[in-house]
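MOLECULE: protein
FOLLOWS: sequence and fold
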Amino acid sequence: MASNRIGVYPGTFDPITYGHLDIIRRASRFVDRLIIAVSTNAGKGPLFSIEERVALVKGEIADPQHNLNGGNVEVVAFDNLLIQFAASVEATFIIRGLRAVSDFEYEFQMAGMNARLDPAIETLFLMASERQQFISSRFVKEIGRLGGDISQFVPKRVVDRLKKKFAEEAKG
């Protein structure tokens, strides 16, 4: 009996970007089941609530234009240690996206710590594709908040939610 290859792709996804969707699409080909693990990560001071972020990610995963409807991708929220979450869903892999060399040092250290905490769970790194390397949720929010065009970085429903959120912020 073949074992299931379960991958966990964790992140804050505040908001989900085309870069995230690229990693999700590519990672889903390597595993039988891919769990998009949306972190509460209150320390980062997310713009969207955990419920809003999960809903945005689910909306994009379900959108046929992203070609992610293979049935092996699901979205869940988590608020504990990533390695504990990964073990609880019987993951064999943690998927991490790398945009630049600057990402590598932090991700390398985290992978090492996770390997010490649970050596049965491997970390797989996927390089961001050339078109997505510079996209970060932080930059998207910054550009959007200042009225810049973010439509090339995030899907339309995310653009609309960001505009709505920024309008709410402006009202106080």
